Amino acid sequence: MRVATANSYDNTIAALNKRQAELSTLQEHISTGKRVQRASDDPVAAVLSETAQNRLSRVEADKRSLEASVTSLTQAESALGEAGELIQDVRDLLVAAGNGGYGGNEYKDLAQQIEGLRERLLGVVNQKDSFGRTLFGGLGGSSTPFVELYGPSGAGVVRFDGQRGQEATGANSLPQALDGNAIWMRVPEANGTFRLDLPAGNTGSVRTDMGQVTNPSALTGNDYSISFAEVAGVMQYTVTNTTTATPVAGQVGVPYTSGNTVEFDGMSFQMLGQPASGDTVELLPVTAPTDLFQVMQNAVDALRGASTGQTAQLTQTIGRSLTELDAGHDRVLLARAQAGEWLNRGEAVDGVLSDRAVDHESEKSRLEDLDMIKGISDFQNQQVGLQAALQSYAQVQRLSLFQYLG
User: Fold this and answer.
1) Residue-range domain boundaries for the chain
2) Cα–chain-centroid distance for residue 287?
3) Tell me: the pLDDT tens digits for 184-214?
4) Is 215 in a helix, a strand, or coil?
């Protein structure tokens, strides 16, 4: 079969161009370190690599969100620690107020110190994180979640303007703010079920403890009054259900003894001190929680109103303030423990996400990256092959019948 010289040259040139193109492609892969740079290089690997990249992007987004949450929670935990110290300082001052040797000036000084601590606490609960979000705004709402009201109708009252509720934790996410309403504004008043008050008109020294519930099913939710009267030289008390205007059975004309426990309708409490004839103790059901700011304000008002020495009313108010302050402090400690638990969880989630990112990076590298040893070896083989092809082409090109005619 006769092969035309022109056709042979064309085929040889095409083969040389192909080898040169393959060599150029190998050189590009080696320079970038990537085996797959475009979908045409390996369609299946390109699709799988894109999938791995998308998953990696989602993991990186989750890590950024988690880092922001951890930053906010760290600042919230620190603020809760500061708040706990302020509450303890207020408690120390209330304990000091029980000093029987104090007079009006000392009480006013204590009231001023407690008021200053209260203002500092208000600043703590309105703190914002590094991104400008309120730490205790709950689900959002006002940029200042705790607002103090002024004027005759709202003196000393703090209102929560945030959104109540707590953001739920996700598989890879944490809350970025805490529910300030649950922490600061849901403190049980007195013992949480009823409170005992001493009218300002009492002249004796009778007072009570905070009381407790002994039988929840026997509670009536009514108001009661314990009145004292001296009969035949014996101090007696009578318990009256003021809601129904009827005396409580078994609690009429009972001789009074300091330290005795009074129990009726599922409630019990202890009365101390010596009452005067005509003194009363009021027992009222608790219908709503109080808040830490109101607890401190009540203590401030009581201390400022004590122009003389220790009175039964002041002792009663301080005792109740201490009980409510301790309950509020417990809620702060519980919130701080929860924040700490979330931070621990954040560390664990961050580790999981980091491992997941490494897996996706490895998968992407396995699909895209070039085996440099193999790539260089292939490049050298292609280079040698191209050089051989060029040399053989040059040798064949010099072969011609006319060189031998003469």
Assistant:
1) 34-189+288-369, 197-286
2) 28
3) 999 999 999 999 999 989 999 999 999 999 9
4) coil
CA neighbours closer than 13 Å in the CB half-sphere of residue 346: 23
| Cβ contact 337:67 at 8 Å | no
pLDDT by residue (tens digit) across 247-260?
999 999 999 999 98
230, 360 Cβ separation under 8 angstroms: no
Q: Which of 258, 251, 255 is nearest to 233 (CA)?
A: 255
Which runs of consecutive H residues, i.e. helices, occur in 126-163?
Answer: none
- Whole-angstrom CA distances from 56 to 53, 82, 90, 362, 363 are 5, 39, 51, 10, 10
> pTM for the full model?
0.79
**Cβ neighbours of 107 (radius 10 Å):** 22
CB atoms near residue 19 (< 10 Å)? 18
When the pLDDT of each residue in the chain is averaged and rounded to a whole number, the result is 84
How many Å apart are CA 292 and CA 329, to the nearest integer? 9
Query: What values do phi and psi take at 245, rounded to 5?
Result: 60, 40
**pLDDT by residue (tens digit) across 318-329?**
999 999 999 999
Architecture of domain 34-189+288-369: Up-down Bundle (1.20)
CA angle 90, 91, 93 (to 5 degrees): 65
> pLDDT for 13-41, tens place per residue?
766 667 666 656 666 666 666 666 666 66
